[in-house]
Amino acid sequence: MTAEEAAAYAMDHDLGPMFDQAEVVRERRPAKMVTALRIDMDIHAEIEAAAAARGVGASTLMRQIIEEWVAAHRDSVAPDQLGELVRHLDAARRAAASLARPAA
């Protein structure tokens, strides 16, 4: 059956029964997602060199790095953002107080 014949058949017939009998084959296929990743050009060059040494593309290597990081940190406790903010504000206050003191 040619592509045109198949298209004409699909337009003229109910394909539901064919889908009911079809076997579902599930394989791991990464979702295609396009995002802008802003990194330093030197880092990008290092990633490209490392990817070339491994025989993969730079985007594949970045995806692998991200997947490994997520898997390693999946069960980690999320940081206490309020506690981190308070800690940074306290450090900034101490630095400002230190700078405000006259030099000895």
Protein described:
63% of the residues lie in helices and 0% in strands. With 104 residues, it is mainly alpha-helical. The mean pLDDT is 85.
Helix content: 55-70%
User: What's the N-to-C terminus distance?
Assistant: 92 Å
- Count of beta strands: 0
Number of helices: 5
- DSSP strand content: under 5%
Query: Mind telling me the C-alpha Rg?
Result: 28 Å
* pLDDT averaged residue by residue: 85
Write the H/E string, N to C.
HHHHH
Computed structural class:
mainly alpha
What's the main sheet like?
none
Shape: elongated
Write the layout of secondary structure elements.
Elements: H1 3-12, H2 16-21, H3 41-54, H4 58-73, H5 81-100
Helix pairs in contact: 3-4
Give the tags:
single chain; 104 residues; mainly alpha; 63% helix
The gist of it:
By secondary structure, this protein is mostly helical. 63% of the residues lie in helices and 0% in strands. The protein starts with a helix and ends with a helix.
